[in-house]
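Why should sequence recovery work at all? Because a backbone constrains its sequence more than one might expect. Tight turns favour small or flexible residues, buried strands favour hydrophobic ones, and helices have their own preferences. The token representation captures these environments compactly. In the example below, the structure is given first.
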């Protein structure tokens, strides 16, 4: 296989985001296919014993095993790295595989990590349960409290980990500030950027060291496959992440990589249109409920910060209707909008985090994070905004709002 004409590093880096999402990292075989080829193979053959020995020794380029390299997966990795502005990227089997690998590849017993307390339920499980099991100390803080990051630093702090916007409370963390604190102490920042994606927010431009994704979400964008990605400097990816991934095996299948490649082609269009729809629905809902959490609206406590560090505020917002019974009544009254715990999909989906994505946390932990019994999270899709508005208006009315 060969890269397409003009695919040298300098040229691709000069492309703008929409072009990178469509053409970045494309390789073509001798057949000259327009769409990326799908390589469904676990292994490779070699012309001679010297070639395979050189590849395994790292002195010659080429594929050795699909747990390490696959042409379709490699194309996806190059494209995501270009979109993120990263030196390198490694694709993972899922978003949680990406978060786990990004942390465990660099943390050891005796190390300390500081994490934003508002996070996806499984990410909190990593912080609260898994890492301490291996002797890694963790501290959770209110990530929106800028002073709390500095205050939480210990001599053995190695990593800052946070989501922004956070799932499901839409907390917005000042990326540049947190990264500056980290750099001053020699700490690595790992940012979960799944709610925004690289077309709406690029943490590395604000100083982040590592950016992790659930590519299942906006990057695929149509609810088809599981995938994840970790972006960072080439030394971090090759010297810290790759040995962990190679020996533990959370690799992405070529088919799933190909599907995400197709999703990236329309990522910019989808992310911006879904952001517009979410803003419109947020304005519809806000006057009718006790509390609404949407970074794109002036009522959000960190609206100004969100406007500075994001190009648009994404497809997701949350609102609180007070009680679990009221939340369930609203969900049950939906007609067009689906009840589903996924996000990033082109379809509009809504869920009750306390009984789904964060059900594994005890009530005290949920309360600390702001995941109340009345909280609902909505992923706004690409349906006609008038149809979405009518359905949500009907459900609000039926639930007494």
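From this structural description, the recovered sequence reads:
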């Amino acid at each position: 296989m060969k890269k397409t004409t003009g695919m040298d590093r300098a040229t691709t880096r000069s492309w703008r985001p929409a072009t990178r999402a469509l053409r970045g990292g494309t390789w073509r075989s001798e057949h000259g296919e327009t769409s990326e080829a799908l390589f469904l193979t676990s292994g490779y053959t070699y012309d001679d014993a010297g070639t395979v020995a050189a590849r395994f020794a790292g002195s010659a380029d080429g594929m050795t095993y699909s747990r390490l390299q696959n042409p379709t997966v490699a194309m996806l990795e190059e494209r995501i790295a270009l979109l993120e502005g990263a030196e390198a990227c490694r694709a993972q089997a899922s978003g949680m595989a990406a978060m786990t690998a990004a942390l465990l590849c660099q943390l050891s017993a005796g190390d300390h990590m500081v994490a934003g307390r508002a996070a996806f339920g499984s990410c909190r499980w990593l912080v609260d349960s898994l890492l301490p099991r291996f002797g890694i100390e963790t501290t959770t803080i209110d990530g929106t409290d800028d002073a709390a990051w500095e205050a939480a630093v210990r001599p053995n702090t190695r990593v800052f980990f946070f989501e922004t916007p956070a799932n499901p409370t839409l907390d917005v963390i000042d990326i540049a500030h947190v990264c500056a604190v980290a750099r001053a102490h020699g700490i690595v920042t790992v940012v979960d950027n799944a709610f925004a994606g690289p077309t709406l927010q690029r943490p590395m431009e604000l100083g982040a060291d590592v950016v992790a994704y659930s590519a299942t979400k906006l990057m695929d964008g149509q609810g088809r496959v599981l995938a994840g990605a970790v972006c960072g400097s080439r030394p971090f990816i090759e010297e810290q992440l790759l040995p962990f991934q190679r020996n533990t095996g959370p690799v992405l299948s070529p088919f799933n990589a190909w599907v995400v490649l197709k999703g990236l082609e329309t990522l910019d269009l989808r992310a911006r249109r879904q952001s517009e729809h979410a803003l419109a629905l947020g304005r519809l809902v806000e006057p009718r409920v006790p509390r609404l959490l949407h970074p794109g609206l002036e009522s959000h406590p960190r609206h100004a910060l969100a406007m500075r560090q994001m190009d648009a505020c994404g497809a997701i917002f949350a609102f609180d209707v007070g009680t679990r019974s009221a939340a369930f009544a609203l969900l049950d009254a939906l007609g067009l909008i689906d009840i589903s715990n996924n996000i990033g999909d082109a379809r509009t989906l809504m869920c009750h985090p306390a009984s789904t994505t964060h059900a594994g946390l005890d009530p005290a932990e949920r309360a600390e994070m702001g995941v109340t019994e009345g909280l609902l999270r909505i992923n706004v899709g690409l349906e006609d905004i008038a149809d979405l508005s009518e359905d949500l208006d009907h459900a609000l009315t039926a639930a007494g709002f």
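A few observations help interpret the result. Residues 54 and 314 are 46 Å apart (CA to CA).
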